[in-house]
Amino acid sequence: MIDQQRLWDERAARDYDTPGEGMFAPDVLDRTVERLARLADGGRALEFAIGTGRVAIPLSAAGVDVSGIELSHAMIARLREKVGEAEIPVVQGDMTTTFAGRDFSLAFLVFNTIANLLTQDEQVECFRNAARHLRPGGRFVVELWVPQLRSLAPGHPGTVEVSRPGYLLVDTYDTIRQLVISHHVRFGPDLADGSDARMSRTPQRYVWPGELDLMARLAGFDLEARWADWDGEQFTADSRSHVSVYRLAGPG
Hints:
Layout: H1 4-7, H2 10-16, H3 26-40, E1 45-48, H4 56-61, E2 66-70, H5 73-80, E3 90-92, E4 104-109, H6 120-133, E5 134-145, E6 158-164, E7 167-174, E8 179-187, E9 197-205, H7 209-218, E10 221-227, E11 241-248
Parallel strand pairs: 1-2, 1-4, 2-3, 4-5
Antiparallel strand pairs: 5-11, 6-7, 7-8, 8-9, 10-11
């Protein structure tokens, strides 16, 4: 059993924020917020695993009424340094069971976070929990990476995903259980704790797009659209990630 509170602790919350860079870069974040605002269609939005507010804060600033669910106390504390409860309400808890209200027009789960649920059953329950929050015809949006198993060399169950100054990301795969461990190695003179290098690990359960679609159908959703990115580029066999939009049965 993974202790998610320990995994997403104060240091993880601090390291998560990289203002203006990476997933916080304007060319990434602006497109994400613009697309989600359109999909909300004037209604309320709920972010599963809201984290430190990377998407929720600018989405709220764009005029969308945003609430959140978040398991990590440290992530919520970081979010609260930026905005108050009145602006973006957050319920602390697991995204598979925690309830934050009804009649949302949009629920969303970005940046591969559904993979933090390490069993198929938990991932199915995440879809069912999204359905409980949405009004008929509401949308559930999932941003997720595509497993890169084609890049695995025979007999070598690991890949180097990122290699840049100060950071190395190595993924190791358990293809029987559909699990991948991401090994994050940070090094150089700028580490806050003064060490030469620091390593952390994050486990994930990878999901193929077709499997995700079946999970959605079990919860009463139909696939409305799938893009390769937030710009709406066509999803192909070579796409490394996807943004999938599911629509709950009913008018809308």
